[in-house]
Specification:
By secondary structure, this protein is an alpha+beta fold. It has one domain. It has one helix and three strands, in the order βββα. It has a three-stranded antiparallel sheet with strand order 1-2-3, with helices on one face. The longest helix is centred in the C-terminal third of the chain and has 11 residues. Bound molecules: zinc ion. Zinc ion binds next to loops.
Length: 65
């Protein structure tokens, strides 16, 4: 298991997020506690991330932009 503490908070709302993989759609969904954030259910295409760790890395890179 990957600890949630490795995920940076959302750069827009500041809430903590969770990433879950949807194997049917081959996408990673970034879920927020804050459902009003425009980044809630932000999608990372499985084309760019072959594992949950890579999805985490993509999210963490985005949040520093
Ligand atoms: Zn957010």
């Amino acid at each position: 298991m990957i600890s949630n503490s490795k995920l940076k908070p959302c750069p827009f709302c500041g809430d903590s997020v969770n990433i879950m993989y949807n194997s049917a759609l081959n996408v990673f969904h970034v879920y927020h506690d804050n459902e009003e954030c425009k980044f809630n259910e932000f999608e990372i295409d499985g084309y760019y991330a072959n594992s949950l760790k890579e999805a985490y890395d993509i999210w963490n890179t985005r949040s520093t932009n």
